[in-house]
Amino acid sequence: PQAKLIFSMSLLLGTTITISSNHWMMAWTGLEVNTLAILPLISKSHHPRAIEASTKYFLVQATASTLLLFSSASNAWFTGQWDITQLTHPVSCTLLTTAISMKLGLVPFHFWFPEILQGSSLMTSLLLATIMKFPPTILLLLTSPSLNPTLLSVMAIASVALGGWMGLNQTQIRKIMAFSSISHLGWMIIILIYSPKLTLITFYIYSLTTAAIFFTLNSTNTLKLSTLMSMWSKIPTLAAALMLTLLSLAGLPPLTGFLPKWLIIQELTKQELTTMATTIALLSLLGLFFYLRLAYCATITLPPNSTNHMKQWHTNKSIDMLTSILITLSTMLLPLSPTILTIP
To answer: Which of 101, 105, 148, 215 lies at a 20 to 30 A Cα distance from 130?
Structure first.
């Protein structure tokens, strides 16, 4: 427990250092603290898959951190500035975009993310999909005026397309959530240049909904679609709530997840980027398909065929308070959208 507390505190410390720093070296230090804190949490199960996942994660994050340090050092060499907001040299901007894309798992640097989520526990996967994405996203927000809009737009559209396409034939829920994360990152990045506030709103709502789904899966110990099918017989109320949360993550209108997609398409249209808005909206239909399949599996009353996994009849029937609050927020926040929009 002491070790777990230390790693959790280090995660918070690393995130705080990065998002509050003004100097590139401090930002890099925060990212390194984060990486070192999450590695023991990934590998704590001592399973070969977990060890492999932590090794892959370390190699990818170390490479990305080195690139980030190199981009900031080259910018300082050319301009004499170590300030995060003063990243002006074009080569440094491209290098930084590459480094942050690698840290986030954007296409074409997405290959590591599904594998690592598959090798981690559900709660560690939640940390990797939400908290670990926050510091790099903040660094992108701080440097957004200097970044190349065309490069970001291409990477964003590719992420939405690949996230939807690759999630179609998955049976492991953690991999589906990984491709869902890649797809949502595309939505965040496409609007980054034009409205950084919208990127943050999208990130918050995505984190909220993903947390609700992971907490639900953790309470029922569900890792595969075949296990998800027998969930209705154990906790029907939670299965119905999970269906709504999944549809919210897909972005269907009466639910919370519709808000960021609606605002992003509206903003892109205002910027006269109608083709881009249409493309990203159509590509998100791919993701909608596998969210609907998950929702269907969550609410099915009888599995269509016999399964080979162990039946988990004796499970915890109670739903904890945190899961209830997260599910409620991730499905019913849409009426509060005028309040969210008036935040300066």
So the answer is: 148
